[in-house]
Amino acid sequence: MPCRACGDAVTQFLDLGRQPLSDAFRSPDDVSDEFWLHLKAVVCHGCHVVQLADPVPVERMFHEEYPFRTSSSRRMSSHFAATAERLVAGLAAPDPFVVEIGSNDGTMLATIADRGIRHLGIDPAANMVGEALARKVNARAEWFDAVTADRVRDEFGPADVVYAANTMCHIPDLPGVFTGLETLLADDGIVVFEDPYLGDVLRLGSFDQIYDEHFYLFSATSVARIAELHGFALVDVEHLEVHGGELRYTLARDGRTPSPAVGALIAQEGRERTHELPRLAAFAAEVADRRDRLRDVLDGERAAGRSVAGYAATAKSATVLNYCGIGPELLPVVYDTTPEKQGRLTPGSHIPVEPFPQDLADYPDTFLLFAWNHAEEILAKEQQFVDRGGRWIRYVPDVRLG
Q1: What pTM was estimated for this model as a whole?
Q2: Are 189 and 22 in contact (CB under 8 A)?
Q3: Which domains does the chain have, with CATH numbers?
Q4: Rounded to the nearest 5°, which phi and psi values hold at 65?
Q5: Is the Cα torsion angle 259, 263, 266, 271 positive or negative in sign?
Q6: What is the spatial distance between Cα 305 and Cα 233, in angstroms, rounded to a whole number?
Q7: pLDDT digits (tens, 9 = 90+) for 306-321
């Protein structure tokens, strides 16, 4: 298949094998066939965006039982509140209108709503839209495309800001999204979106950032080239220390002068050969080595008679568990706070997901930390576990036990 973003040729550099849908947590008595995909990553020769070779139909991933809540992390809730305040501070229109694509449970837009600013959240997960509405956020359960954009503009007028977080990378039909943005955005409006950054994935070796929902891994270089195809310009970039490293991209219609940060980062990506096949092949070799070392650590814990459990049944953990061949024999349970996941089995690997034990005495000897991007928050919360001798297995930025 050609590049989904620009139509140019692509080359494969990574094969993570047979993988399930990352958020398809199954009931133990569900004997129906599981959906599988072959998870391969390719890089485009034209726009340089990294993407999956084979997209999963988006309706299989984002639906009325979607289990992830933006508000589940205090750190991310604070991040989105600060983001909302920043967006509000930049609004100059007399009656501004803010649209969020992939608004989830309304965490970011709740601050916008509190300021009395016209807004709309668009998200296909009806259950999360219901939670947003309960927060007094104006939201709709829809897919964002050209038709939706046209309907929203007719009803509300042009958008002064269109914002998306961890959403643009989810949508294989990126040209369709840009067509919608061309329709919806005011002439002097901006598009602001943040997604996992390819440079950080390569630097940290965070291969679990590659899974079915993360169809694209963007960089400043690739976003600038894709935006140009649709009459937009990348006018600013900002590195964010969330979700294991993200970039916040600001797009505007052609004519606005980019900030110095844009050229500086694109030049850095060139020096680091971020998009070149030798660099990407080295990353793939590192991933294979990390798989073997992680299994060795788990085998060692089992041989020593120490109990091990997974910490947080993240979507990313599906890639780790299935690529590394980790099942209940090495990891008998994964603990998670999400009610929709509790009492179910992890996708593909079929490890039971349970609520965290109420008593510290029932904790395992060792946790395998899947939510490594929230490590600071989690380690502070679980200090008593460490004080009593509990240990953590981590695999980002390297495999280590301690």
Answers
A1: 0.92
A2: no
A3: 61-278 (3.40.50.150)
A4: -120, 25
A5: negative
A6: 57
A7: 999 999 999 999 999 9
